[in-house]
């Protein structure tokens, strides 16, 4: 297997705070990972490392065969597609949806004077079809619903044909219908053998798309468990990560996690 990303003994420190604590994590080509953990576990910090936006304080990060610290990150970043609310807020509301998607090929948000060729527009149109937003191509980004925006953002993240796709809480803020449509779309993506290696962060196990093969459970900056999803998303591991008795299950391909009221400690 070829490692697309490899973290070895990685820690990230800010002042007294240890955001990641001696993390080892390997993502092999073709795998689809979900990263889960309580608030403050270090998920966003991990994605910042994986998107070459941050360097570790100690340890080694290898991305797409290059070592962070020994590579020009501006050459590395276009090879990594990212969809996150931090990027979405930079997209001007007056931008046409087609331009939001196509402008990723220049690594810009908001069109200026770049020239795109037919191939760029062809790819943008194909991605908009794939993510069921073709009919929105001539609408402005600011007029879209949250669910529609998320799908446009993911189409944009795929525009450069990245080798690694990072999705930071794609289901956040969606209503039930929006979430279900997004999960279905992401399931198609994760089940597509031609789709890039993917790492998805979510707070809700219900949002894990079909096709996700591996899970990383983080808590307080440390790895609680990592590996094939069935071995990681167990009631014991989730209980340990969240510090609350949890019952975890899967039915019809969808995960669920509920507080295990029989095992809640009494005061
Ligand atoms: N610059 C910083 N200085 C000090 N602490 C920081 C800094 N940046 C982040 N932290 C802390 O590091 C921890 C990990 O943050 P991170 O955003 O990676 O967690 P997360 O798992 O993404 O959390 P959430 O689920 O709430 O988004 C948090 O406790 C956060 O407050």
Automatic annotation (TrEMBL):
Q: Does the keyword Transferase apply?
A: no
Q: Name one GO molecular function term.
A: ATP binding
Q: Recite the UniProt keywords alphabetically.
A: ATP-binding, Nucleotide-binding
Task: Describe the location of the ABC transporter domain by residue ranges.
Answer: 5-245
**Which SUPFAM superfamilies does the protein's record reference?**
P-loop containing nucleoside triphosphate hydrolases
Any one Pfam family here would be: ABC_tran
Q: Which segments of the protein form a coiled coil according to its record?
A: none
Keyword Nucleotide-binding part of the UniProt annotation? yes
How is this protein named in the record? Iron complex transport system ATP-binding protein
Q: What is the scientific name of the source organism?
A: Brooklawnia cerclae
